[in-house]
Amino acid sequence: MRARNESMASSLPSDPACRIDVLPWLSRATLDVIGEAGFGYHFQSLDGAAEHRENESELAQAFGVIFSTARKFRVMTILQVWFPVLRHFRTENSAMRQAMATMRQIGLKLIEQRRDPVLAATAQFVAHPAKEDSIEGDRSGLGRDLLSVLIRSNVAEIPSQRMSINEILCQISTFLAAGHETSSSALTWTLFALARNPAVQSRLRAELRSLDMPIDGVPSFHFLEQITQLPYLDAVVRESLRLYAPISTTMRVATADDIIPISIPFMDRRGRRCEHIQVRRGDIISIPIQTLNKNTDVWGADAEVFRPDRWLARLNPDDMDERPFRKGHRTAAQGLWGNMMTFGGGNPVNGNRSCIGYRFALSEIKIFLYVLVRDLEFSIDPALEIEKKVNVITRPCVKSEPHRGNQMPLSIRRVPLDMDIDGAAH
């Protein structure tokens, strides 16, 4: 991850205040990370050579089609709930089929390149189990990345635990999409929030610089763990993911009749007081993640404000102003992480359906921010109005430039290590 960050930073022009669209760069960087960490594959999408970026380009186009079409599917799904006759209409189109074919082709390429080495290493470890947990054994080809695990599942001895090639391909597509598009979106919005709040950015940079990079330039696991535990960095990431959740809405289908309890009674359209919500099997439930993350009853009157300090206050049990963290409070949010719905799960609605890679994503985001914000200063033209564009993933665009599509133009300049956070050299 550090190498990818430095690659992106080193590509900046020498101009002290250049303007760059950070969205595509972050998307390429996170694709490289999920490729190497999840699949042991080097997409090399940050490299300048065209042949290295061919797969990245194909993936980007495929994701674009899938996400834009998925938005239409979501609208059609809602309409089909109210108008059953619409269920007879097909929602798939040729562009979607071509995009899925591209994803399948890349997935097959990943499997083909890794299958023989992984299976050979697996056979070796079966013959020599004593080496299974050794460092040498892990490096010999067995692999603990996601793709290696999926390939081994294809030849599992127990039939019920065996995955078909089609199932593996579906998993690869899911993890490629979720593993880099959501992370790049989160990073982009975090840099946007920091650019709009220079005092927060300076304070964060001071904390990041309090942790020195190892002399040899090679970060150890202990060093990476120290990064993820920096308190203000953690607060900034939490606040950004609250205000700018990469997935703004999700849906669930009820598998059985049920009654969902609610903390605050409401009046329905017929004027009746309701203290619960009754659902029937097959009902489609929309979960407004972004709305819940900005609910003033939960987060207070400043719910729309980017204020990382609210997360530091949770460490003080006597601070009763931070309602989401009060034990037993009726409006206490329930979620997998940070009392938020950003990663789903941990609540009666989402149940156990949550992001299984959230810890990896959080570590990835924090490490990217460590290298980027530590060395670079981000600012934004106050005249630019950035708005959210939701095609499954929440991405930014410039309101006055809709023809340019998704973008996040930020002004970036290097901040020398011998310069104070107020800009004074010493």
Automatic annotation (TrEMBL):
Heme binds at residue 355. Pathway: Secondary metabolite biosynthesis. Signal peptide: none annotated. Transmembrane segments: none annotated. Keywords: Heme, Iron, Metal-binding, Monooxygenase, Oxidoreductase. Belongs to the cytochrome P450 family. This is Cytochrome P450.
